[in-house]
Protein backbone atom coordinates (compact mmCIF):
# COMPACT_ATOMS: atom_id res chain seq x y z
CA UNK A 1 0.00 0.00 0.00
CA UNK A 2 1.38 3.39 -0.99
CA UNK A 3 0.26 6.76 0.35
CA UNK A 4 -0.33 9.44 -2.24
CA UNK A 5 1.96 12.42 -1.64
CA UNK A 6 0.80 14.83 -4.32
CA UNK A 7 -2.82 15.94 -3.84
CA UNK A 8 -3.16 17.26 -7.40
CA UNK A 9 -1.74 14.01 -8.74
CA UNK A 10 -4.19 12.06 -6.60
CA UNK A 11 -7.24 13.88 -7.95
CA UNK A 12 -6.04 13.88 -11.56
CA UNK A 13 -5.70 10.09 -11.50
CA UNK A 14 -8.19 9.02 -8.81
CA UNK A 15 -10.54 6.21 -9.68
CA UNK A 16 -12.72 3.86 -7.76
CA UNK A 17 -11.60 0.26 -7.67
CA UNK A 18 -14.15 -2.32 -8.79
CA UNK A 19 -15.52 -4.34 -5.86
CA UNK A 20 -14.55 -7.52 -7.72
CA UNK A 21 -10.89 -6.40 -7.46
CA UNK A 22 -10.95 -5.78 -3.70
CA UNK A 23 -9.40 -8.38 -1.42
CA UNK A 24 -8.07 -9.04 2.05
CA UNK A 25 -6.46 -7.61 4.07
CA UNK A 26 -8.42 -4.47 4.75
CA UNK A 27 -7.71 -1.53 6.99
CA UNK A 28 -7.59 -2.21 10.71
CA UNK A 29 -9.83 -0.40 13.20
CA UNK A 30 -7.29 2.36 13.95
CA UNK A 31 -6.71 3.06 10.25
CA UNK A 32 -10.46 3.10 9.62
CA UNK A 33 -11.16 5.46 12.52
CA UNK A 34 -8.41 7.85 11.35
CA UNK A 35 -9.99 7.92 7.89
CA UNK A 36 -13.45 8.51 9.40
CA UNK A 37 -12.06 11.42 11.43
CA UNK A 38 -10.83 13.07 8.23
CA UNK A 39 -13.88 12.12 6.17
CA UNK A 40 -16.35 13.68 8.61
CA UNK A 41 -14.96 17.11 7.69
CA UNK A 42 -17.66 17.78 5.12
CA UNK A 43 -19.78 20.85 4.38
CA UNK A 44 -22.56 20.73 6.91
CA UNK A 45 -24.58 23.93 7.05
CA UNK A 46 -25.93 24.42 10.53
CA UNK A 47 -23.84 21.62 12.08
CA UNK A 48 -26.76 19.22 11.71
CA UNK A 49 -24.63 16.17 10.90
CA UNK A 50 -27.54 14.59 9.00
CA UNK A 51 -25.82 11.26 8.46
CA UNK A 52 -24.32 8.28 10.18
CA UNK A 53 -22.06 5.38 9.23
CA UNK A 54 -22.79 1.72 9.94
CA UNK A 55 -19.79 -0.61 9.81
CA UNK A 56 -20.78 -4.13 8.77
CA UNK A 57 -18.11 -5.94 10.75
CA UNK A 58 -16.69 -9.32 9.85
CA UNK A 59 -18.55 -11.08 12.65
CA UNK A 60 -21.90 -9.53 11.60
CA UNK A 61 -21.72 -10.11 7.84
CA UNK A 62 -23.75 -13.35 7.99
CA UNK A 63 -26.51 -11.65 9.98
CA UNK A 64 -26.72 -8.81 7.44
CA UNK A 65 -26.67 -11.27 4.54
CA UNK A 66 -29.53 -13.22 6.12
CA UNK A 67 -31.61 -10.02 6.25
CA UNK A 68 -30.76 -9.03 2.68
CA UNK A 69 -31.53 -12.52 1.32
CA UNK A 70 -34.92 -12.61 3.00
CA UNK A 71 -35.77 -9.09 1.86
CA UNK A 72 -34.51 -9.70 -1.67
CA UNK A 73 -36.68 -12.81 -2.02
CA UNK A 74 -39.71 -10.93 -0.71
CA UNK A 75 -39.12 -8.21 -3.33
CA UNK A 76 -38.56 -10.81 -6.07
CA UNK A 77 -35.09 -9.43 -6.76
CA UNK A 78 -33.27 -11.46 -9.39
CA UNK A 79 -31.42 -14.24 -7.48
CA UNK A 80 -28.24 -13.36 -9.38
CA UNK A 81 -28.41 -9.79 -8.02
CA UNK A 82 -28.89 -11.14 -4.50
CA UNK A 83 -25.92 -13.47 -4.95
CA UNK A 84 -23.76 -10.62 -6.28
CA UNK A 85 -24.69 -8.48 -3.25
CA UNK A 86 -23.76 -11.34 -0.91
CA UNK A 87 -20.46 -11.95 -2.71
CA UNK A 88 -19.54 -8.25 -2.55
CA UNK A 89 -20.01 -8.25 1.21
CA UNK A 90 -18.33 -11.59 1.90
CA UNK A 91 -15.20 -11.01 -0.18
CA UNK A 92 -14.60 -7.39 0.81
CA UNK A 93 -12.79 -6.78 4.10
CA UNK A 94 -14.71 -3.62 5.05
CA UNK A 95 -18.28 -2.72 4.12
CA UNK A 96 -19.89 0.52 5.25
CA UNK A 97 -23.48 1.67 4.96
CA UNK A 98 -23.78 5.45 4.92
CA UNK A 99 -27.18 6.51 6.21
CA UNK A 100 -28.68 9.89 5.36
CA UNK A 101 -30.62 11.23 8.36
CA UNK A 102 -32.26 14.51 7.32
CA UNK A 103 -33.45 16.67 10.20
CA UNK A 104 -37.06 17.70 9.58
CA UNK A 105 -38.29 21.21 10.40
CA UNK A 106 -34.76 22.61 10.22
CA UNK A 107 -33.87 25.98 8.74
CA UNK A 108 -31.46 24.02 6.54
CA UNK A 109 -33.30 22.70 3.46
CA UNK A 110 -33.47 18.92 3.18
CA UNK A 111 -31.70 18.97 -0.18
CA UNK A 112 -28.64 20.56 1.46
CA UNK A 113 -28.65 17.86 4.12
CA UNK A 114 -28.82 15.16 1.44
CA UNK A 115 -25.95 16.83 -0.41
CA UNK A 116 -23.95 16.86 2.84
CA UNK A 117 -24.43 13.10 3.09
CA UNK A 118 -23.31 12.67 -0.53
CA UNK A 119 -20.24 14.75 0.30
CA UNK A 120 -19.58 12.42 3.24
CA UNK A 121 -19.75 9.37 0.95
CA UNK A 122 -17.30 10.96 -1.48
CA UNK A 123 -15.03 12.07 1.34
CA UNK A 124 -14.95 8.55 2.83
CA UNK A 125 -14.23 7.07 -0.60
CA UNK A 126 -11.47 9.55 -1.42
CA UNK A 127 -9.85 9.24 2.01
CA UNK A 128 -9.55 5.46 1.64
CA UNK A 129 -8.24 5.83 -1.92
CA UNK A 130 -5.74 8.55 -0.93
CA UNK A 131 -4.42 6.24 1.77
CA UNK A 132 -3.71 3.49 -0.76
CA UNK A 133 -6.78 1.30 -0.21
CA UNK A 134 -9.11 0.20 -2.96
CA UNK A 135 -12.65 1.50 -2.48
CA UNK A 136 -15.97 1.76 -4.29
CA UNK A 137 -19.29 3.47 -3.52
CA UNK A 138 -22.33 1.52 -4.74
CA UNK A 139 -26.07 1.96 -4.45
CA UNK A 140 -28.46 -0.47 -6.18
CA UNK A 141 -31.39 -2.36 -4.73
CA UNK A 142 -29.88 -2.71 -1.24
CA UNK A 143 -29.60 1.07 -0.90
CA UNK A 144 -32.90 1.85 -2.59
CA UNK A 145 -35.10 -0.42 -0.47
CA UNK A 146 -36.14 1.61 2.58
CA UNK A 147 -37.49 -1.48 4.34
CA UNK A 148 -34.10 -3.21 4.13
CA UNK A 149 -32.59 -0.10 5.71
CA UNK A 150 -35.14 -0.28 8.50
CA UNK A 151 -34.62 -4.00 9.11
CA UNK A 152 -30.82 -3.95 8.94
CA UNK A 153 -29.84 -0.51 10.24
CA UNK A 154 -32.86 0.56 12.26
CA UNK A 155 -33.48 3.46 9.86
CA UNK A 156 -36.34 5.79 10.75
CA UNK A 157 -39.02 6.59 8.17
CA UNK A 158 -37.05 9.70 7.15
CA UNK A 159 -33.67 7.97 6.82
CA UNK A 160 -32.27 6.16 3.79
CA UNK A 161 -29.06 4.46 2.70
CA UNK A 162 -26.98 6.81 0.55
CA UNK A 163 -24.78 3.94 -0.46
CA UNK A 164 -22.46 1.16 0.50
CA UNK A 165 -18.72 1.74 0.50
CA UNK A 166 -16.55 -1.32 0.01
CA UNK A 167 -12.87 -1.17 1.03
CA UNK A 168 -9.93 -3.55 0.72
CA UNK A 169 -6.49 -4.14 -0.69
CA UNK A 170 -6.12 -4.19 -4.45
CA UNK A 171 -3.78 -4.67 -7.35
CA UNK A 172 -5.97 -2.92 -9.88
CA UNK A 173 -4.08 -2.14 -13.03
CA UNK A 174 -7.10 -1.62 -15.26
CA UNK A 175 -6.99 1.36 -17.61
CA UNK A 176 -8.81 4.51 -16.62
CA UNK A 177 -12.23 5.03 -18.17
CA UNK A 178 -12.99 7.85 -20.59
CA UNK A 179 -13.58 11.06 -18.64
CA UNK A 180 -15.81 13.96 -19.70
CA UNK A 181 -14.34 16.68 -21.90
CA UNK A 182 -14.13 19.96 -20.01
CA UNK A 183 -15.57 21.93 -22.91
CA UNK A 184 -18.69 19.71 -22.81
CA UNK A 185 -19.29 20.30 -19.11
CA UNK A 186 -18.06 23.83 -18.38
CA UNK A 187 -19.75 27.03 -19.49
CA UNK A 188 -19.43 30.63 -18.45
CA UNK A 189 -22.27 32.84 -17.29
CA UNK A 190 -22.74 35.75 -19.68
Rounded to an integer in angstroms, the radius of gyration calculated over CA atoms is 18 Å
Side by side, the strands of the main sheet go 1-2-4-3
Shape: globular
What is the tally of helical segments?
8
Unreliable spans are: none
- Strand content is 5-15%
How are helices and strands ordered from N to C?
Answer: HHEHHEHEHHEH
User: Taking all residues together, what is the mean pLDDT?
Assistant: 93
> Which percent bin holds the helix content?
40-55%
- Count of β-strands: 4
Level-2 CATH architecture: 3-Layer(aba) Sandwich
How far apart the termini lie comes to: 47 Å
Q: Please indicate the count of domains.
A: 1
Question: In CATH, what is the class?
Answer: Alpha Beta
CATH H level: which superfamily?
NADH Oxidase
Task: Describe the model.
There is one protein chain. With 190 residues, this protein is α+β, with helices and mostly antiparallel strands. It has a single domain, classed as 3-Layer(aba) Sandwich (NADH Oxidase). Helices cover 43% and strands 14% of the residues. The chain has 8 helices and 4 strands, in the order H-H-E-H-H-E-H-E-H-H-E-H. The protein has helices at residues 7-13, 29-39, 61-74, 79-91, 110-130, 141-144, 146-153, 182-185, and strands at residues 51-56, 94-100, 134-138, 160-168. Strands 1-2-4-3 form a 4-stranded antiparallel beta sheet, sandwiched between helices. Helix 2 (29-39) packs across helix 5 (110-130) and helix 3 (61-74) runs antiparallel to helix 4 (79-91). The longest helix has 21 residues, at 110-130. It is globular, with a radius of gyration of 18 Å.
Amino acid sequence: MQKTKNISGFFSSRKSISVKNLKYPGPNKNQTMAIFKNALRVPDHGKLEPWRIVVISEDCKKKYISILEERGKKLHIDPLKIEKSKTNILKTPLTLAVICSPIKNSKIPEVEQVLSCGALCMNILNNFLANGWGANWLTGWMANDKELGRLAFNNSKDEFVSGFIYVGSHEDKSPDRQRPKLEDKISYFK
